Amino acid sequence: MKHYSILFLKSLDLKILNLNEVDSTNNYALRNLSSLSDRQVIVAEKQTRGHGRLARKWVSHVPENVYMSLVLKPFREVKEHSPLTNLTQYMSVVICEFLLKYNVHAELKWPNDVLVKGAKIAGLLGESTFQGILLKGYVLGAGINLNMTPDDLKVIDQPATSLNLLTGNPVNRDSFISGLLDKFFSGYDQFLEKGFLHIKEQYTKKSTFLGKKITVTSLLKSRTIGIAKNFTDYGSLILAADSGKEKIIKAGDITCL
Ligand code: BT5
Questions:
Q1: Ligand 1 atom closest to the CA of 162, numbered from 1
Q2: SS3 helix, strand, coil % of the chain, rounded to 5?
Q3: Of all protein residues, whose CA lies closest to atom 9 belonging to ligand 1?
Q4: Which protein residues are within 6 Å of ligand 1, measured from CB?
Q5: pLDDT tens by residue, 71-124
């Protein structure tokens, strides 16, 4: 049985659909994309099939965390270098800045992981659907650990953390979500206009792996080793590869050596 309620965030005029349990808030948004309006937010208490990129599992059985998807329909025509491809990076910067309110200094791991002292606290997943060449909608999914025990974190196959463990206090999920959305939408229009350049400076400052030796694993699993140099104006990673060549990488996963 699915329970839901719609909370309105008055200052923003946002609609939030709050589901008790769902397979994945991203899947829900993609299934219902035609009937959901621009800026509709979907949150769930639990997800039974929460996922990340490449169908990796997102651990989502613990309530009082953020399992959230934003339906975004900013335009129909998607041009070259569209800011859509950087929306997850924009959200990662917003999350980092919002965490400062809790006195937590987070860092970024390209393309869009949010870490605290090397442990992952949030992950982002963007998925879009097209009708021919026209955008039907973009779904921006965010998983943020707010209230987990060390035992809950043990099932995650990489170092992970949760806001309550960092602050020593339980975190109120609804006020976290409304504060985060407020911050996200207060810069969203400007971000759409300027794209990655709008956040490049903050994104670069928080990318603590820059200057270090890293391995980049592409989505097709090929590996390149080199020094992480910087980002292009479109959010791609610039790597000084060990082969002596400079490479511009649009997608992949990085590990520090
Ligand atoms: C991500 O993928 O980090 C994107 C995660 C997006 C989750 C949200 S929740 C709401 C919406 N609905 C969905 O179904 N998804 C979105 P990726 O970069 O592929 O990283 C996945 C990896 O993160 C996993 O393989 C684990 O190593 C790790 N992981 C899984 N659950 C985690 C958790 N709760 N906290 C920290 N790390 C986790």
A1: 35
A2: 30, 35, 35
A3: 143
A4: 24-26, 47, 50-53, 56-59, 67-69, 113, 120, 123-125, 141-143, 145, 156-158, 160
A5: 999 999 998 889 999 999 999 999 999 999 999 999 999 999 999 999 999 999
